[in-house]
Write a structure and sequence with these properties.
single chain; 269 residues; 9-stranded parallel sheet; TIM Barrel; alpha/beta; 14% strand
């Protein structure tokens, strides 16, 4: 059983929902990333999504794009991101870590080399935005051969055929993009998400996380009532962007703790 699956099963037994915060590795400073990861856990994160900085993103809005640019200016590479995960694992071997990024750095390293290195570093899952399921059979095999969960995106525009393709390959969880657009680009319609999830659940046997557009504890709580996990990225990056280094962890701790509180209050825990 993967660490991600075990986490969801534990939460389900407790009647709780997962909080999955996202940060970009190397932002605002590579030396702070591991400390920020530990802060996320302290605040109540169940799984961490760690963004691999990339120069030409297609799903990330301006906030996360700026985070990638700050990291890239400091020379952060995929291998360095794996090193950050390995350092995090020295003190925490329980919290699942999912790398989220784009195909180019993985292709440059080589899929098989990346899969082995990610496993060695302590990565648990990989979400590659521009690996569509119909082109990901070999990628998914390589991930699963190295005990990594391949995680896929679904969107409001996903067809039943696309949902079935994801169902055949995904493990760990699937990430439902709640809005038509990039991260942080529009207001979240919780009712529209609630109307779409039954079709996805009927076809897919892994938990469903919902992200994009979740900016506060109240909305996180609303999503927790209909999904298995709440994913928050841009709002956390904004907090990082607006903070000085000495107050960074405290501000992130306060924000993510509030999101955790909103989720737990909504589901009665």
């Amino acid at each position: 059983m993967s660490k991600i699956q075990a986490t969801f099963e534990r939460l389900q037994a407790q009647g709780r929902k997962a909080l999955i915060p996202f940060i970009t590795a190397g932002d605002p400073d590579p030396a702070l990333t591991v400390s920020l990861m530990h802060t996320l856990v302290e605040a109540g994160a169940d799984i961490i999504e760690l963004g691999v900085p990339f120069s030409d993103p297609m799903a990330d809005g301006p906030t996360i794009q700026r985070a990638s640019e700050r990291a890239l200016r400091q020379g952060v590479s995929l291998r360095q991101v794996l090193g950050m995960v390995a350092t995090f694992r020295v003190a925490n071997n329980e919290t699942p870590v999912v790398l989220m990024g784009y195909a180019n750095p993985i292709e440059a390293m080589g899929v098989s080399v990346f899969a082995a290195a990610a496993f060695e570093a302590g990565v648990d899952g990989v979400l590659v935005v521009d690996y569509p399921p119909e082109e990901s059979i070999e990628f998914s095999r390589a991930m699963k051969a190295n005990a990594l969960d391949p995680i896929f995106l679904l969107a409001p525009t996903s067809t039943s055929e696309r949902i079935a393709q994801v169902a055949a390959l995904a493990s760990g969880y699937v990430y439902y993009v709640s809005i038509k657009g990039v991260t942080g680009s529009a207001a979240l319609d919780v009712g529209a998400v609630a109307a779409r999830l039954p079709e996805i659940r009927a076809a897919i046997g892994v938990p469903v996380g919902v992200g994009f557009g979740i900016r506060d504890a109240a909305t996180a709580g609303e999503i927790a009532c209909i999904a298995d996990a709440v994913v928050v990225g841009s709002r956390i990056i904004e907090e990082i962007e607006q903070s000085t280094a000495d107050k960074l962890c405290a501000r992130v701790l306060a924000l993510v703790s509030a999101l955790r509180g909103g989720i737990d209050a909504a589901v009665g825990k």
